[in-house]
């Protein structure tokens, strides 16, 4: 599986359950690709499927307990700029967190 | 109801992220040995990230160009998804204090700067979602 596509799909279903059509549209991928990824993510326990009479709905189940985080944040801050500063840490003025 | 005795020393507005939702962020200074200047940027508060800091590609490129290749490599895991990362030993200024941490830079594009639990546990945060304010209180 390609991580970029997984990120988009997980982001799409994270907030609310969605149909394959909605997920494919939000992730900007084809319906077949989307279905294939969703089937794999379902087997891995990341998403779960609910079937209605008309469509298949997928929702986020959350991540596991391994080192890392619940899901990779795929959304960028709008207008986040990097500015340069002359402020740098002084010798001995830094405390270690590791 | 218990009274809140937090004494607020700083306050930041939530910022818009892709998708139109307001998110709590904090301003950071990031510095690595070899750089002449530090880099000032915003990072999203992410209590789901166990580590101290995740770097965007833009910040990673500054570190790489100005201070050399990563110190090591290690993967993070999001559920069962592996995110291979470069690791840079950096100094990060959050509010008025510098911390030495390992920063994870995913080798794939598209990630935003994230402040994880290791750094968040150094400050007293009050997230006021309804008013879209992140408050910092005295320790």
Main attributes of the structure:
heterodimer; A: Arc Repressor Mutant, subunit A; elongated; B: 139 residues; mainly beta; Cathepsin D, subunit A, domain 1; 6-stranded mixed beta barrel; globular
Q: Which secondary structure elements does this structure contain, and how are they paired or packed?
A:
The complex is a heterodimer of chains A (98) and B (139).
Chain A: H1 3-14, E1 18-19, H2 20-27, H3 31-43, E2 47-51, E3 56-60, E4 83-85, E5 94-96
Antiparallel strand pairs in A: 1-3, 2-3
Helix pairs in contact in A: 1-2, 2-3
Chain B: E1 8-13, E2 15-16, E3 22-23, E4 25-31, E5 38-45, E6 53-54, H1 57-67, E7 72-78, E8 81-94, E9 97-106, E10 114-115, H2 117-120, E11 124-128, E12 133-137
Parallel strand pairs in B: 5-10, 6-9
Antiparallel strand pairs in B: 1-12, 2-3, 4-5, 4-8, 6-10, 7-8, 8-9, 11-12
What separation lies between the terminal Cα atoms of chain A? 32 Å
What Rg of chain A is obtained from the alpha carbons, in whole angstroms? 19 Å
CATH fold topology of the domain at 3-60 in chain A = Arc Repressor Mutant, subunit A
The counted number of beta strands of chain B is: 12
CATH class of chain B: Mainly Beta
Q: What is the topology, as strand order, of the major beta sheet of chain A?
A: 1-3-2
Which word captures the global form of chain A? Answer: elongated
Give a short account of the largest sheet of chain A. Answer: 3 strands, antiparallel
**Do you know the CATH architecture of chain B?**
Beta Barrel
Q: Which homologous superfamily in CATH is the superfamily of chain B?
A: Acid Proteases
**Poorly predicted residue ranges of chain B:** none
Q: Quote the CATH topology of chain B.
A: Cathepsin D, subunit A, domain 1
Run of helices and strands of chain A = HEHHEEEE
Whole-number mean pLDDT of chain A? 83
Give the DSSP E fraction of chain B (strand runs of 2 or more residues): over 45%
């Amino acid at each position: 599986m390609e991580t970029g596509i997984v990120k988009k799909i997980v982001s799409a279903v994270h907030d609310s359950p969605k149909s394959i059509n909605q997920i494919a549209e939000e992730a900007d991928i084809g319906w077949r690709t989307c279905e294939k990824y969703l089937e794999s993510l379902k087997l891995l326990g990341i998403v779960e499927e609910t079937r209605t009479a008309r469509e298949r709905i997928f929702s986020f189940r959350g991540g596991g307990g391994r080192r890392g985080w619940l899901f990779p944040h795929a959304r960028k801050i709008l207008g986040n700029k990097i500015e340069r500063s002359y402020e740098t840490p002084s010798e001995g003025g830094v405390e270690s967190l590791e | 109801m218990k009274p809140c005795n937090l004494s607020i020393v700083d306050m930041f507005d939530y910022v818009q992220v892709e998708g139109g939702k307001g998110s709590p962020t904090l301003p950071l200074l990031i510095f690595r040995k070899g750089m002449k200047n530090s880099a000032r940027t915003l990072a999203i508060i992410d209590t789901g990230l166990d580590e101290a800091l995740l770097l965007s590609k833009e910040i990673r490129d500054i570190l790489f160009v100005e201070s050399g290749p990563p110190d090591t490599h290690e993967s993070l895991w999001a559920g069962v998804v592996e995110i291979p990362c470069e690791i840079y030993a950096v100094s990060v200024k959050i509010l008025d204090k510098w911390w030495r941490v390992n920063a994870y830079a995913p080798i794939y594009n598209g990630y935003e700067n994230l402040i994880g639990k290791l750094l968040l546990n150094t400050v007293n945060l009050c997230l006021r979602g309804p008013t879209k304010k992140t408050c910092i209180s005295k320790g």
